[in-house]
Amino acid sequence: MNDRLYWLGWQVLMPGSGRRLWSLIEHFGSPEEAWKAPLKDLEGALRLDGERAADLARRRAAVDPVEFAAGLEKTGITFICYNEPGYPANLSFIYDPPAVLFARGSLKPDGLALAVVGSRKPTPYGRLVAEKIASDLAAAGVTVVSGAARGIDTAAHKGALAAGGRTVAVLGCGPDVVYPRENSRLLDQIAASGAILSEFPPGVQPEAWHFPTRNRIISGMAKGVLVVEAAEKSGALITADFALDQGRDVMAVPGNVTSPVSRGANRLIKQGAKLVEGAEDIFEEFGLDSLFPKTEGCEQVPVKLSDEEKQIYHLLSVEPVHLDELISRTGLSAGTAQAALMFLLTKGLAVKSAGDKYTCSGRKLF
Question: Taking the model in full, what pTM does it have?
Answer without folding.
Answer: 0.79
